[in-house]
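Hi V.,

You were right to ask for the full record rather than a summary. Here it is.
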Amino acid sequence: VQLVESGGGLVQPGGSLRLSCTANSGFTFDDYAIGWFRQAPGKEREAIACISSEGRTDYKDFVKGRFTISRDNAKNTVYLQMNALKPEDTAVYYCHVRVRNVDYWGQGTQVTVSS
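Predicted structure:
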């Protein structure tokens, strides 16, 4: 199982980014929920949003109305559209899948929100 995130970068407050998480191999992508997490310097990794195999979504309160998670099973990819970004959104963003009771993470992509 391999997850690869992309799409991070430097953006001004109020700006937008779209992160991608592509699964390369090892499991049937369509059958699994995928989650996005983030970790800011000096803080623990925290969950942001997840999407089930059926496309049901769930968000933490601090991103509701600003972030949207979606998936394209034909491309083995989950997206995180992030709007109205704030400096406190600065972190390394990771995607996650649990396959046969084993947790897999991507390498992370840095998001920096700063003027």
